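New to this. Explain the following:
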Amino acid sequence: MNPTTFFQAIPPDPAANEAAISLGGWLFVPAPGLVVEPKRIQHHSPVRSSGNSAPVVGELYRTGGEAMYYSVSRRRILTVQQYRKLLLQHPKTVKEDWRIVQRNTAAYGRGTVHHPDHRPITLHGWHRILIDAGSEAAVLPG
């Protein structure tokens, strides 16, 4: 698994499909009533942390997910349990470039969304960000 495949595609609710906005293989489904923690809102942030055709959202909010450890130099992802086992076996590992990342988060956006291949759109209110199940990608934002 690599950093661009942390998230599974979730088919949107057919009823929400009519209200969804599509942009370059991404769906933005209205999420009325979503309550966010203001300090966790990221500004002008790409939906994915890597990859070239991810949209950049005016305000991005992520919630939920599972903590994982990622090493750039090893190009490896470990669960918390696997990382702890590695530290027991190789204590010097702690000095390497491992960092904590989240997988399987839910991503929400609002404001202006820019995509390198499309005209910008504006999301009024929070929208759940999903990969369009009909697109080639099978990855969700992370």
Notes: The first helix runs from residue 14 to 17. The helical segments are 14-17, 80-89.
